[in-house]
Amino acid sequence: MIRILSEILGVxxxxxxxxxxxxxxxxxxxxxxxxxxxxxKSLSLEDILxxxxxxxxxxxxxxxxxxxxxALNKVLFKILLILALFIGNSLFWEINLGSALFGLVITLALxxxxxxxxxxxxxxxxxxxxxxxxxxxLGILITPLIGVALLVxxxxxxxxxxxxxxxxxxxxxxxxxxxxxxxxxxxxRVSFKAKTSDLLQEYQEDKAKNFIILGAGDLLFPLxxxxxVLFKEGLEQGIIVALFSVLxxxxxIFIFLSQSKEKPMPALPPIALMILVGYLVAKLI
Length: 285
Prior knowledge:
- The protein is built from eleven helices and two strands.
- The chain is mainly alpha-helical.
- A two-stranded antiparallel ribbon has the order 1-2.
């Protein structure tokens, strides 16, 4: 138990960093509101479900291609990672700097550093910026009620995709083999010089794993919900939801590390559960 708690403390700093950046992003948006006018109309549940259906279809097609054309794995996942970093960082830096050109320069520089140095810390920072950028822009388009429905629906999907269809597990393994994980690499014992490629190689060789991977989707949708609460219901409610979000992330990590043998598990359900409890608390106060 002591070992598990020490490992959780080693990775929890990234959870707080991610949430801090969310607040920074929201604050920057409000202070630079003349650069971007929030949409007057929110996305409907039908719009979101349609988008999810399209995304799921594309994921299943990707899984099929990966199973039939394994030689394409590395190229496809590298492209997917670079695309996600490019879109998310462009959104993040443009609104925070107030300049699309400066945002593009920083985005390209970050992607270049990720590809050149291959350090887990640079990978995580670039992905954090991207997740905050995408989560923020999705969050201002949905209402908290839509966010609740989305978290519940995706939690069920995550559970089914890991334990029943297992296509999420296959996709994660393919990403690791391609050295392009679309998720945060959270070390249990921090070594800033550790390279992403070395850590992932240990994972493939089934050696003692000194890190865990928290999928991008496990943070993107909670961040979107948090942003929605902040904009639609205020700072006080947002802070409460943020605190419970951190608890949810830590709970998910704790459950994972508590397994007698570490194996893939859906991270979103415990995170979503704590977020929804926090939202209920915020509504009752």
